[in-house]
Amino acid sequence: MSSTPARIADTDDTRALSATAIPVPELPGSVEELAASAAVRLGWHGVVLPEMVLMGRKVIVVAELLADAHAERVCLGAGPETDRTTVSTWVWPEMDGRVPPAAVRIVGVLAVARHWRTALASAVPFARFGNAAAVLPASVVFTHDYLANCLPRVRRYGVSVLLADEDLQLSTDVAGRNETVPVEDTATTRWVNELVYERVLATAS
Question: What is the pLDDT at residue 177?
């Protein structure tokens, strides 16, 4: 699995590509298979959760259960709280020290899709909270749309792009941000964390 650097479009080549109608390709495997391979390729260690809807986007989250925090919550009887209104109060100053600790760390968020626009619409909102990546069919690189419109956007937002060939082999086309990023506690991030916590426990059971 060789890493392919992101291409810089040549003007004449992109004109030729844009004149050819290329159908949207199919994914070479299931979303789950591709996401699991992508997590390995990216070096994201944690549980690769089933596809879920977060903030209206279909994504696959890679998360790590924080054993100490989880044990504390079990002792307190504080299971995952998925009511957004309730969680929104957890960041109030007067609630400091009175709310359960976050019990998972979100390692990264993956969007697996046939078209780059769909993948980026799902992945980009999570890029400001941490690592985000898109998994696309390898044939998208032959389109002018991908070269001219996708590559500038993924570089701007720090999203990684992995390409899947027909043999389910993944290559890295764009290496985005891939690091442990401190996430500020906000009503949204705490709520997403609780939804992921619930899914981690459901997956483990």
Answer: 81
